[in-house]
Description:
Layout: H1 18-29, E1 37-38, E2 41-45, E3 49-53, E4 64-67, E5 77-81, E6 86-93, E7 96-101, E8 115-116, E9 120-121, E10 127-132, E11 136-140
Antiparallel strand pairs: 1-9, 2-8, 3-6, 3-11, 4-5, 6-7, 7-10
Amino acid sequence: MRDRFGRTVMILVLSLAPSLVAAPLAAAIAAPAVPVRYGGDAARDACDTLATVTGLDPRGDNYLSVRSGPGGAAYREQDHLRGGQQVWICEERGVWLGIVYRRSTTGADCGVGMPRRRAGPYRGPCRAGWVHSRYVRTIAG
């Protein structure tokens, strides 16, 4: 391009900071949520394993990400759990665990401690999501 005096002028185009674009873009292309399923056995509790969050790095972020599906960054991070938080394991997919958990130490019964003949997606009253098994230790079940 030339200016009004005939000199060649270069135009510098600044792009948006990658962090401003990456987060909305990642959310827009995240894999669809995979509901945690529970039940399916009339002789066993709907989610028959009680576990605790453990092994978090206190020098790191010191929380366990709860995701919307079994597979890490491809799925939306929907919550964080701290060490010692108890969870019920409802299903396993490789190294990923489908869990149900209370958001606080008090609250409603999650409804997973008794048999449920039909398997289906967990819909509450507690929360559900997916965590990596590396940071979960079985307490009972």
